[in-house]
Design brief:
- This protein is of the alpha/beta class.
- The protein has one domain: Maf protein (Alpha-Beta Complex), CATH 3.90.950.10.
- The chain is 31% helix and 25% strand.
- The chain is built from six helices and seven strands, in the order βαβαββαββαβαα.
- Strands 1, 2, 3, 4, 5, 6 and 7 form a seven-stranded mixed sheet that branches.
- α1 links the parallel β1 and β2.
- 35% of the residues are buried.
């Protein structure tokens, strides 16, 4: 593998992360790392996403030692408690009910494996989402329209979920969707891959 024609692997089966990575004009494959994502006892949400991002990358290095591997993990936190993916209307309703009027922190860990020197480069994005005060009917209307049951926090910020917020504090709007592209470009540069790529290649 050369830096002019890198082989890139996204350690994820998420369609959201795939769509985000496509923005950078890269050719890449996707593979889901088979890891245990259970939180450790006394582990903070930040520590968990950093650990799992690294673990996802490490899980694929043995099979793909010559590829640049991109791995990410994200979790939302309300009062230092992790918010998972609801999976159903009922659980999503409970989540949004608890989140209304609150500030949710989204931690997005990012790791890039550099095969040239066998190192792991890492970064962390923190996004704060301020929720409006919401009525039960507003929550119900939103969930029935967008059905964000596979999303941590029970919303899609890139869609109708934006109606739930009073403010978003972040450095990169892509991070909230699942992949902090600004940090990723920085890490890829450290690994020797400068973006944007030459369009004449």
């Amino acid at each position: 593998m050369t830096l002019d024609s890198p082989q890139i692997l996204l350690a994820s089966s998420s369609p959201y992360r795939r769509q985000l990575l496509e923005k950078l004009g890269l050719t890449f494959n996707c593979e889901s790392p088979d890891i245990d994502e259970t939180a450790h006892e006394h582990e903070t949400v930040r520590e968990m996403v950093e650990r799992l991002s690294l673990k996802k990358a490490q899980a694929l290095v043995q099979q793909h030692p010559s590829k640049i591997i991109i791995a990410s993990d994200q979790s939302a936190s309300l009062n230092d408690q992790a918010l998972g993916k609801p999976g159903s209307f009922e659980k999503a309703f409970e989540q949004l009910k608890a989140q209304q009027g609150q500030v949710i922190c989204f931690y997005t860990g990012l790791v890039v494996y550099n095969p040239h020197d066998q190192t792991y480069l890492s970064a962390l994005d923190i996004t704060k989402v301020h929720f409006r005060e919401l009525s039960d009917q507003q929550i119900r209307n939103y969930l029935l329209t967008e059905q964000p049951y596979d999303c941590a926090g029970s919303f899609k910020s890139e869609g109708l979920g934006i109606t739930l917020f009073s403010k978003i504090e972040n450095q990169d709007p892509n991070a909230l969707i699942g992949l902090p592209l600004i940090e990723l470009v920085n890490l890829l540069s450290q690994a020797g891959l400068s973006l944007p790529l030459d369009p004449s290649r």
